[in-house]
Amino acid sequence: MGAIESHLAEHVEDVRKRQRAVVEKVLAEHPALASQIEDMDEYVRGLYPGMSDEQIAANLFTLLYREERKIVREFHRIAEESKFDSNAAKRAKEIVDDLGEQEKRRLADLTAKRHQLLVAANMLLKFNLPEDEQYHYEKLVHELLCPMSRMYQSGDFEDHNLWILDDSLAGYEFFASDKTIQSFTESSKSTKEPDLVFFNPLGFRRPETNEPVTIIEFKRPGGGKISSDPVTQVLKYVEELQEQTVVGPDGNIITQINKNTPFTCYIVCELTEETKKLLRRSIANLETPDGEGFYGFSPTHNAGIQVISFKKMIDDAMKRNKAYFDAINLPSPSRAARERAAKRRAKKADKELQKAE
């Protein structure tokens, strides 16, 4: 074996370099898997030379799955014990620590996926489409944040990416995407379709009070000219919704809207010079310090208005994402990975000892 390894050393080294690159790529896309490796070189040396990229990734996922399953089994075993001595208490604390690590791994994976999504979203900003195709771009951005022509209940977190604009939007009890106002109200005949409208934020829901409503509108101008005044457009939506009863898909009453109901309106658009001139003549005529947004308030509608560029929406989400990722401090390797590495080293030491004897 020694002679064979020496003869194929150059070839084996090339294989290991390729495999290491595969492992590093998999870990970049799935940070949670890093917990299964204590020493990168040692792990790569343990891979079969003929393993494909998919098999290498599958190996890491299998190790993670086995570890998590083992922890859950141990947790249930201790929970079912009638006698809880000091050893059980020590093991219970270890399990709690392991579960905490698992949670951080899940957060790391979520953050990595968010980063990939933001990179993809940022790519969209680089395309210069003909004027007759601008609407398709607007729809694409809309679909990226939230699929169109749907009504959502709280808990549908996996079906949208509203966190790109505002993390709190996922906490609303009910929201509609590109649906006519008459489709989610009791008596309105309006066929207007707000891009996104949200009702009853769960964290602030109080009976007999005016729950805030949030409206989001996307605008993609063509040739420097915006298709319509977005501020006037969202305020018309507010007027259409006032004095209406909002109902869910099953006909259940979601909320009552009156003249005192507060509204928050987001407008996401390209802030061209033509658009900025239009906004400076509107209620939302106050410019943000970074020059990438405008804001204002309409007392008549009890509505706050925020206008931001597509670029600012993505950049701000990038900043929030980075801070979140840095704060995770993912522990690596996991307890199981350390135990596996210790066993491999002990086994290797035994072989060397036997060889020496």
Q: In whole angstroms, how far apart are the ends?
A: 18 Å
Overall average pLDDT: 80
Going across the biggest sheet, name each strand in turn. Answer: 1-2-3-4-7-10-9-8
Helix content: 40-55%
Unreliable spans are none
Question: Can you give a write-up of this model?
Answer:
The protein has about 350 residues and is an alpha+beta fold. It has helices at about 1-5, 10-30, 40-45, 55-80, 85-125, 135-145, 230-240, 275-280, 310-330, 335-355; strands at about 150-155, 170-175, 195-200, 215-220, 245, 255, 265-270, 285, 295-300, 305-310. The chain is about 50% helix and about 15% strand. The strands form 2 sheets. Strands 1-2-3-4-7-10-9-8 form an 8-stranded mixed β-sheet. Strands 5-6 form a two-stranded antiparallel ribbon. Strand 8 and strand 9 form a beta hairpin. The radius of gyration is 28 Å and the shape is elongated.
Overview in brief:
Helices cover 48% and strands 15% of the residues. It has 357 residues and is an alpha+beta fold. The longest helix has 39 residues, at 86-124.
What are the main properties of this structure?
alpha+beta, 10 helices, two-stranded antiparallel ribbon, 357 residues, eight-stranded mixed sheet
